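Researcher: Next entry in the queue.
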Amino acid sequence: MTFTYYKYSLLLLGSVFLTGNLSISVNALENNNFSTATSSVPYLAQEIKSNNKTDSREYTYKAPDSKIISNTKQLIEAQGYRVEVFGSEQVLLQQVKDIEPSAFIKGDTIQVGIFSQQANAENMVRKLAVKGFWARIKVQ
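Model: Structure for this entry, 140 residues:
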């Protein structure tokens, strides 16, 4: 137990010692004083030269524009109304395609279409109900 205590104490002291050297090196880098930094921690103060010029790159970042939709009408118009028929059998898909040719199987349902207006989605559900299909509208 005492050996473990001494081992961790030495590790702690070593990390404090290294942290002190690193802070000196960082200060030396900030002040462009490389003489002490290169002797204590050479990998932090390394200069890269090519053709007697120091390579440097400057990056300018700009935050993306955030468009805030304040009008709730815009939010409603951005919604989509997905019409689905329950079932995923090929025979059922062919029958639904007689009403809407672009229908396809998606998971355990058949997606008939996505409509931007709720009234159009409701009309499609009525067409499907007349033919005996049970459909639902999911708001996206």
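Model: The CA atoms of residues 5 and 11 lie 10 Å apart.
Researcher: Noted, moving on.
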